[in-house]
Amino acid sequence: MTEGENFRKHLKLQLDSNPYLKGLEAFSRSLEKDYFAKVNIRTCHTDKSDGIHEGRPSDLVVEMECNFSLVEILYYLEHGNWGEAANYLSPHGTPNSAFNEALIIFRASNSIEVDVEELSLQLKDTVIVIKKLYAQSIGEQLGQILQTLAAHYVHLTRGLTETPYEIYLPVFEEEIPSANALLGTVKKAANSPIDYYGYWALYFDSVPDARIYDLESRTIISGDLHMLNH
After folding, report:
1. E-assigned strand segments in the chain
2. How confident is the model at residue 20 (pLDDT cuts 50, 70, 90)?
3. Residue 88 near residue 95 (C-beta atoms within 8 A)
4. What is the model's pLDDT at position 37?
5. pLDDT tens track for 132-179
6. Around 40, how many Cα atoms within 13 Å sit in the side-chain half-sphere?
7. In 3D, which of 30, 154, 38, 164 has the Cα closest to residue 97?
8. Buried b vs exposed e over 95-115: b needs ≥16 C-beta within 10 Å?
């Protein structure tokens, strides 16, 4: 995989830049206020039919462009000045987020099921891409994901020497590479919350290929990412 390539290029989704959903503007404004961001929301589906008007579920691709660096948002997050939720803990007992609270209100405004297929946080020095694993997984887990990102920041940045220009999560095996014992420990997805906290893909300017970050061992693994699938 060459520099600049990422998993999103393998997505076979059609995107609609003008989705019609009740409460969409209010949802977007809420995200802009809580995350100090420019927000772009599109719907995605895998065929040419219009899922919205046929009453089928609508999956969203949400892009939030924030004029902060990674370390800045982590600092503001720690001090409750960025993405803060009214209730710190979600109903699932995990750290809550303003994103999840806004999404709950947005979903309640529509008669069809609304979910987020992909969330992209576009910062000054990196892009964080989070993929959906199961129904409402991004909204439910975003608070915990950001807390985990903060806890692993030193290791993700190679001891504060280099910030990856993209962080993609999660990643899973497509086939087990026998030549690399560490990569061979990557498990297939079970579509559960724990799957977000196993392995992430990191892209650095200093190396042509992506690296895999093992959250359990807090180490960056070299390997061929074509062996992995999201």
Report:
1. 14-16, 37-45, 58-66, 114-122, 127-131, 166-169, 172-173, 199-203, 211-214, 219-221, 228-229
2. confident
3. yes
4. 97
5. 999 999 999 999 999 999 999 999 999 999 999 999 999 886 543 444
6. 9
7. 30
8. bbbbbbbbbeebbeeeeeebb
**Residue 175, amino acid:** E
Question: Measured on CA atoms in the order 132, 135, 138, 142, is the torsion positive or negative?
Answer: negative
Residue 113 has, within 13 A of its CA and on its CB side, a CA count of: 8
pTM: 0.81
Measured CA to CA, the distance from residue 207 to residue 66 in angstroms comes to: 26
Measured CA to CA, the distance from residue 83 to residue 81 in angstroms comes to 7
**Residue ranges covered by each domain of the chain:** 7-171
SS3 213: strand
Q: Which residue has the higher pLDDT, 31 or 53?
A: 31
